[in-house]
Write a structure and sequence with these properties.
Pathway: Nucleotide-sugar biosynthesis; UDP-alpha-D-glucuronate biosynthesis; UDP-alpha-D-glucuronate from UDP-alpha-D-glucose: step 1/1
Bound molecules: nicotinamide-adenine-dinucleotide
CATH topology of the largest domain: Rossmann fold
Strand order of the largest sheet: 3-2-1-4-5-6
EC number: 1.1.1.22
Catalytic activity: UDP-alpha-D-glucose + 2 NAD(+) + H2O = UDP-alpha-D-glucuronate + 2 NADH + 3 H(+)
Keywords: NAD, Oxidoreductase
Helix content: 40-55%
Protein name: UDP-glucose 6-dehydrogenase
Structural class: alpha/beta
């Protein structure tokens, strides 16, 4: 099939490449010429494992192209919209200006029977509003909403082998169109849920709200563990054995971040308030507050470890991305902790395998180094905030030999406390006795 993908960021670039890899002919459109230039040259503009390979292999087939010229979508019959829906500058609601602009830009190039497929995460009600706009355009095009559940770090695999497909449709014919787009996944038995627009939109925000709640739940338990001497990791293991609860997403730590969970739960509360149902999801404000408190907790632990005098002390911050296997620093707890410590006068030195360039753009006032060794050298304190495998595998004896620090703060409960204590460290975890 001939597809277009409007918006080639973390979601769209992967979607475009994966669809071409699966045999479709794809034109990816973005307003950012630098991004388009990199993608067209086969270079991913961001770090995502597996993306270089699909970009190269799909590019070599001639089925994958990128452009800044929206007119190039004219040959395609299915048009995915994957532009950003960030938090508004003046509140919690999602800013839909990119989605609206993408639809307006598309409309002049559409023809009878074309299908616009929204993938961006949007407030419930958006698809109906956009479908009305498409209908009034007189193009004869239709609209479906097909939310995306990929995880950064696993985005290529999640796109090629999704764990489910959700189609929000207004016209039965669109089920067949989407089934042809996703023929490989459907053939492999991927569950698919065919529903209306509102349910499809809500599935996405409900899933993210649930995941955020699960993380904040265990972090709330960590707060109680911290004042009682209980151990959150044993607690999580014990409750996680209950199949109704499950162990995944029950790792206490510095909390969630990134370009999705924080802004999605905030947009959900804003939308629920607009709908007169603010109380139904008011708990998400608490989920958000618990999450943000964990960042402050790490900073407080750091100040304590520096005897209340962080000024001029070298703090090695290990990790700056919101999670490992990504270069994404949007709303990153790790970056937030680094900035807060710098604000208290510490000489913060940040290291990360992939996120330094993005972090430097946002916070040039921090010191960055590409090597863990340099970050640790003569550090007065070590703070792990993103659990990259190389930090989890650090040799505590070597770390001890090159730093001045006596304490390691494990903001992700990812280190082996016994090994670090045996090497002479004072180990401070999150909710761990
Ligand atoms: P992003 O900021 O990385 O990418 C958005 C891209 O859209 C940018 O490259 C931007 O230049 C481009 N763009 C903006 N306006 C445009 C226009 N009018 N025409 C063409 N291109 C335009 O964002 P992202 O992380 O890829 O997220 C996109 C959407 O997908 C959001 O709604 C997000 O919530 C959702 N989502 C993201 C993920 C994820 O893991 N990143 C997962 C699931 C859903």
């Amino acid at each position: 099939m001939k597809l277009s993908v409007i918006g080639c960021g973390y979601l769209g670039a992967v979607h475009a490449s994966a669809m071409a890899e699966l045999g479709h002919e794809v034109i990816g459109i973005d307003v950012d010429p630098a991004k388009v230039g990199a993608l067209q040259a086969g270079r991913p503009p961001f770090f995502e494992p597996g993306l270089p390979e699909v970009l190269t292999s799909a590019g070599a087939t001639g089925r994958l192209k990128f452009s800044t010229d929206i007119a190039e979508v004219a040959d395609a019959t299915v048009h995915f919209v994957a532009v950003g829906t960030p938090q508004s500058a003046d509140g919690y609601a999602a800013d839909l200006k990119y989605v609206d602009a993408a639809i307006e830009a598309l409309l002049p190039h559409l023809k009878e029977g074309d299908l616009i497929v929204g993938k961006s995460t949007v407030p419930v009600g958006t698809a109906r509003r956009l479908a009305d706009r498409v209908a009034e355009s007189g193009t004869g095009a239709r609209l479906a909403w097909n939310p995306e559940f990929l995880r950064e770090g696993y985005a290529v695999k999640d796109t090629i082998e999704p764990d489910r497909l959700v189609y929000g449709v207004d016209d039965e014919r669109d089920v067949d169109v989407l089934d042809r787009v996703y023929a490989t996944a459907i053939g492999a038995g991927t569950p698919r849920i065919v529903t209306d627009y509102a349910t499809a939109e809500l599935v996405k925000v409900a899933a993210n709200a649930f995941l955020a709640t699960k993380i904040s739940f265990i972090n709330a338990m960590a707060e109680i563990a911290e004042v009682t001497g209980a151990d959150i990791t044993s607690l999580a293991d014990a409750i996680g054995h209950d199949a109704r609860i499950g162990r995944r997403f029950l790792n206490a730590g510095v909390g969630f971040g990134g370009g999705c969970l924080p802004k999605d739960i905030r947009a959900f509360t804003a939308r629920a308030e607009e709908l007169g149902r603010g109380e139904s999801v008011a708990f998400l404000k608490e989920v958000d507050a618990i999450n943000l408190r964990r960042r402050v907790r790490v900073v407080d632990l750091a100040v304590d470890a520096l005897d209340g005098a962080p000024f001029g002390k070298k703090v090695a911050v290990l990790g700056v991305t919101f999670k490992p296997h990504s270069d994404d620093v949007r709303d990153s707890p790790a970056l937030d902790v680094a900035v807060q410590l710098k604000g208290l006068g510490a000489d913060v030195v940040v290291t990360d395998p992939e996120g330094i360039d993005n972090a430097r753009l946002r916070h040039p006032q921090l010191l960055y180094t590409a090597t863990t060794e340099e970050a640790l050298r003569h550090a007065d304190l070590v703070v792990l905030v993103t659990e990259w495998p190389e930090y989890v595998a650090l040799d505590p004896e070597h770390a001890k030999s090159i730093s001045r620090a006596s304490t390691v703060i494990d903001g992700r409960n990812a280190l082996d406390p016994a090994a670090w204590k045996a090497a002479g460290w004072q180990y401070v975890g999150m909710g761990r006795n």
